[in-house]
Amino acid sequence: MIPVCFCGNGNETYFGGLLLNIMSMTKYTSEELDIYVLTMDLHEDNPNFIPFTDKHISFLNEVVKKKNKNSKVTKIDMTELYMKHLHEGKNNNTGYTPYTLLRLLMDFIPNVPDKIIYLDIDTMCCSDIKQLYEIDVEDYDFAACKDYMGRFWIRPSYCNAGVLLLNMKKIKENGLFEKCRKMVFNKKMIMADQTALNKYGKKKYIPFKFNEQRKIKSDTVVKHFCKGIVFFLPFGFHIYNIKQWQRDKVHKSLKITMFDDLYEEFDKMKAEGKF
Questions:
Q1: Are 136 and 234 within 8 A, CB to CB?
Q2: Per-residue pLDDT tens over the stretch 80-111
Q3: In Å, what is the CA distance from 272 to each residue of 52, 88, 113, 268?
Q4: What letter does residue 254 receive in the DSSP assignment?
Q5: What is the Cα–Cα distance from 91 to 101, expressed in whole angstroms?
């Protein structure tokens, strides 16, 4: 069994992204998947900040069980925990949605697996996710890849937190997430939870193939559709932020076509009114 955790907003766009992500995961693995979806209701802060619904989760269960009947998707409402520990902090309203902070509350989840993969919704699997899960993190808080740009602009050891293999047993023992929550609550930061994890976590660095932040390669396991920069001579540059659900831009700007079969299946299910 491979446990995987997502954190997200239940609006139509993000549900589409999560669905595509899970479709890509089931395409490449026959392993039993135990997927946790952490969500919350913050519509009073922003009308778009709505939780995933039971109907969303029911449909995602149909999708994963097509490949392995023992796979399952479970929704966990983190609203109460977020309001108690992070809502009044200095990073509730930043350039990133507050849903990314929910991973810092995973130590409160009853019976959370000792070892679990965390994925940002804007990722897609390009081969078997089992390759990531089999990495040994017994002596570390988590395994992660370096941040493509952060290793140059911030520091060489700076990691990207969009793909993590978490050692929850160790994290609960040493209070890593509690330390991160305190930092996020008290200090305004651009990439709050990622910065806190970099500061306090004991990291095992793994190859970029597990969090490919640029062009997909032959050995890529997870493609991350994160922000990128294109430089133009002599001094110009362009920042892009293209997600997997923006398929026209994925095709035209990123030149990625390997997910076209999933887009076709996605369109068919939507046309049939399945979601």
A1: no
A2: 999 999 999 999 988 889 999 999 999 999 99
A3: 21, 42, 36, 6
A4: S
A5: 9
Return d(Cα 143, Cα 99) in angstroms, integer. 21
The number of folded domains in the chain is 1
User: What residue has token string 């193939």?
Assistant: 209
Quick one: which of 81, 89, 64 has its CA closest to 1? 64
- Count CB neighbours of 12 within 10 A: 12
Tell me the whole-structure pTM to 2 decimals: 0.96
265 falls within a domain: no
pLDDT digits (tens, 9 = 90+) for 226-271: 987 777 767 777 788 999 999 999 999 999 999 999 999 999 999 9
> Which CATH number characterizes residue 150's domain?
3.90.550.10
Residue 270 falls inside a structural domain: no
Residue 19's CB is within 10 A of a number of other CB atoms, namely 22
